[in-house]
Amino acid sequence: MTIKAQMVRFALVGAVNTGTYYGFYLVLLHWLPYLAAHALAFVLSMTGSFFLNSYFTYRTRPTWRKFLLFPLTNAANFVITTGGVYLLVDLAGFSSRYAPLVAAAAAIPITFVVSRTIMLRPDTPPKTAERVG
């Protein structure tokens, strides 16, 4: 599969994941402060994102190793979106209902690069060549 096809599939998964995240966020916003709702919704939607990216985007077998490394794909995303949500809501006076959608757009390119690196990484490290002499 080409990188272009992976980018299109990644964008589709991202749209589904954003919808899932936003649905969780709106529900949790009834009981939690906006940053706590954001963090919990982010974690919940990340699990679904892992499986969608494994099977649909990269067509690779999900493994425990990849699952445990997958949060790294979202670490930059989390920092960018959390910072963005805070800046938009507390400093710019933006609505806490819509700020996550705006902040998420800035994180997409970084998340793709990190996701692709982890998801297409071999499950076992390559063997090192033995030294001669």
Count of helices? 4
- Average pLDDT works out at 87
- Could you list the spans in which at least 5 consecutive residues all have pLDDT below 50? 129-133
Tell me the total number of β-strands: 0
Q: Largest beta sheet, briefly?
A: none
Helix/strand-derived category reads mainly alpha
What distance lies between the first and last C-alpha atoms, to the nearest angstrom?
A: 42 Å
H/E order of the elements? Answer: HHHH
Radius of gyration based on Cα positions: 17 Å
Q: Helicity range of the residues?
A: over 70%
Strand content: under 5%
Shape: elongated
List the helices and strands and how they pair.
Blueprint: H1 3-28, H2 34-57, H3 64-91, H4 99-119
Structural notes for this entry:
The chain is mainly alpha-helical and 133 residues long. Helix content is 74%, strand content 0%. It has helices spanning 3-28, 34-57, 64-91, 99-119. The longest helix has 28 residues, at 64-91. The radius of gyration is 17 Å and the shape is elongated. The chain starts with a helix and ends in a 14-residue tail after the last helix. Residues 129-133 have low confidence and may be disordered.
Please summarize what this structure is.
The chain has 4 helices and no strands. It is mainly alpha-helical.
Could you list some keywords that capture this structure?
disordered C terminus; 133 residues; mainly alpha; 4 helices; single chain
